[in-house]
Amino acid sequence: MPGLGPTLDEDDAVIRVRGLVTGFGEQIIHDKLDLDVRKGEILGVVGGSGTGKSVLMRAIVGLQSTREGSIKVFGEETRDLDAAAAKDLRRRWGVMFQEGALFSSLSVAENIEVPMREFLDLPEPLMDELAGYKVTMVGLPVEAGPKFPSELSGGMKKRAGLARALSLDPLLLFLDEPTAGLDPISAAAFDELIKVLKETLGLTVFLITHDLDTLHAICDRVAVLADKKVLAVGTIPELLTFDHPWVREYFSGPRGRAAGAGKTKTMEPA
Amino acid sequence: MTTPSIQDSGDNDGGGNTARRLAVSGDLTMDHIAGIVGPLRAITPGGSALAIDLAGIGRIDTSGAWLIHRLVQDWTAAGVPATIENASGDADRLIAQVAANDNPVAIRAVHGNRAIERLDRIGRALYVAVENVGNFLAFLGQTLIVLGQTLIGRRPMRWNAFIHQCEAVGVNAIPIVGLLLFLVGMVVAQQGAVQLRAFGAEVFVVNLIGRSVMRELGILLTAIMVAGRSSSAFAAQIGSMKLNQEVDALHTIGMSPIEVLVVPRVIAMGLMLSMLGFFGSFMAILGGGLFCWISLDIPPVAFFQRLQEVTPLSDLVIGMIKAPIFGVVIAMMGCFQGMQVTGNAESVGERTTRAVVESIFVVIVLDAFFAVFFSALGFN
């Protein structure tokens, strides 16, 4: 099946995973997994529950120890970095966790300013202005800045988490289920936001999702995780031709078809 | 990678008006703009027009775009029309992006009058304190009703939970309580011996150990240990169950959280603290006896004989009356604080701390009350 392999021929992959093996105790999660993420694309990662989507993301950002294999981000082998280089690498990516993972003792604005204070030496007023800009950019209301995470709804926490991830204008953004638990209108707005950010800021996005609508709406390519590997990577029309029971069930099941139909319907008037 | 710089020049158009021209060059990225923020903002708007020339910039990100955007805004607001010239496509796109998201966003909570705020805080604290007392009384009432109903058999006793709690708060605490009280017994004997030696009355160390340990120290120290160990655990367990909506789930299934979570803990703690207190007193006497044997040459047989003579049975009874009461109070404080958890994980930590501090405090207050009470009854 040419064209749907997990690896790319070109050399400019932002993330390059080769032969990754991870596991917990006896249980193997990934077995010789390969994956490339191209510069400037939104790569959706899908897979059944328990196939290790989140573990893969955690392994790439260095939160999960790996047993074998190589993970290169921006061409640097993450495992071999010394402390200073690792910190420099972390400065260039942003991670948004599923529930936002906001620091509960800091307000939204302070959360957004945490990376700025850690890495940069900006004047306080400018930092406040930039935090204010990020608040608006992710679609939070203007009064959200001084609020604490416990005062926010689930969707607002996700947006604030995204604003913090975008705090330093990262080149690479990791999103773990950004639309899970949002109402369809908010989810669609979130999709649109990520697309706009990708286009204006030139982001590369690694996006874990279960949301078929998100996949259809914004993902350039979709990687399917199953059988402890990345089975196939490609656009959705390409994946529809891929012969694997899970992939067929996923994209051609009733929900997959509905999401696809919604996509074509909204495309027609445009 | 070049540090950005500004070149400020004015073109006189002949009519006395000066069209200002700011040429910005270098990388307008977060890492580099810190140096030009000050100078750029220090320039007072003036002249007939401003042209910002971006021909010389290298890379630009949202912070740089924001800086340029604000410059245009500030000058325009001051009555000087500002324009951007020679911007690259990327820069244009970014500046448009930040311009679209320029809203007056609140960053910090606005502070009012300090005196009023202080009063506001005192009022709130008072309100919370009163509310807390009310909540505790409500909780106490509910628990006592359910406890009474359980004891007379109108509600089922949760035997599994009860046995599990007995193990957690009682059996598992045996080593630490035993070691602690053993050491305390030795210390009391040693300090007592030092003082009593001055009067040649070292043998009275046995009186000191027997009476202080049986009546006060054995139970009190065990209760403090258990309060630190288990009331925190109760608060954390029930608190995280509340956060996780498990308590709500119990309600909707039709089970009473008090019956399922609180009553087994309260009964287990009352029973276990009695037994641990007895065990702890025994260990303290053992520690004191060992010290007497080794250091004061009082053989064990003589030690226990004297202990029997000088320690009235009432001391043991008083200790055994206090123990279950302390146990019930400690368990209730822990469970109450757990039930008060709301909102986020931080609240669990705060409530756990309060459970420990308040249960130890209440235990000591109750102990003082009992000391006065039993003295008044004539048990000296």
Automatic annotation (TrEMBL), chain A:
Q: What keywords are assigned to this protein?
A: ATP-binding, Nucleotide-binding, Transport
Do you know which Pfam families this protein is assigned to?
ABC_tran
Q: Which domain of life is it from?
A: Bacteria
Gene Ontology MF terms: ATP binding; ATP hydrolysis activity
In this chain the ABC transporter domain maps to 15-252
Q: Does the keyword Transport apply?
A: yes
Write down the SMART domains for this protein, in alphabetical order.
AAA
What name has this protein been given in UniProt?
Answer: ABC transporter ATP-binding protein
TrEMBL record, chain B:
Q: Which family does it belong to?
A: Belongs to the MlaE permease family.
Specify the protein's topology with respect to the membrane: Multi-pass membrane protein
Pfam families for the chain:
MlaE (PF02405), STAS_2 (PF13466)
| Xref: PANTHER family | ABC TRANSPORTER PERMEASE, ABC TRANSPORTER PERMEASE PROTEIN-RELATED
Query: Would the keyword Transmembrane be found if you checked this record's keyword annotation?
Result: yes
Residue limits of the STAS domain?
22-129
Q: Where are the transmembrane segments?
A: 125-147, 168-188, 194-210, 217-238, 250-268, 275-296, 316-336, 356-379
Q: What SUPFAM superfamilies does its record include? A: SpoIIaa-like
Listed A to Z, the keywords are: Cell inner membrane, Cell membrane, Membrane, Transmembrane, Transmembrane helix
Gene3D superfamilies associated with the record: STAS domain
- Signal peptide extent: none
GO CC, any one term: ATP-binding cassette (ABC) transporter complex
User: Could you tell me what this protein is called?
Assistant: Sulfate transporter
Please name the source species: Sandarakinorhabdus glacialis
Q: Where in the cell is it found?
A: Cell inner membrane
NCBIfam families tied to this protein: MlaE family lipid ABC transporter permease subunit
List the GO molecular function terms: phospholipid transporter activity
What the protein does comes down to:
Could be part of an ABC transporter complex.
